[in-house]
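Input/output pair, single chain:
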Amino acid sequence: MNRSVKMIVILIGVLSILAGAFSFLYKNDRSNTYFAIFIGVALIGSAVLIKPKKKDIG
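Output:
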């Protein structure tokens, strides 16, 4: 995953968490809130934890 894709995935994760917080504060819809926050955390975690593969030159 190159740097630009990683930044886009992190941005989508942050927007998902913000949408979940907005849903919790203004709509009181708990199922969508938990789902949005879970998806956001999963996206950010996958972008941060996945290490790039090293290319074997040889």
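The chain has one domain: 3-49. The mean pLDDT is 87.
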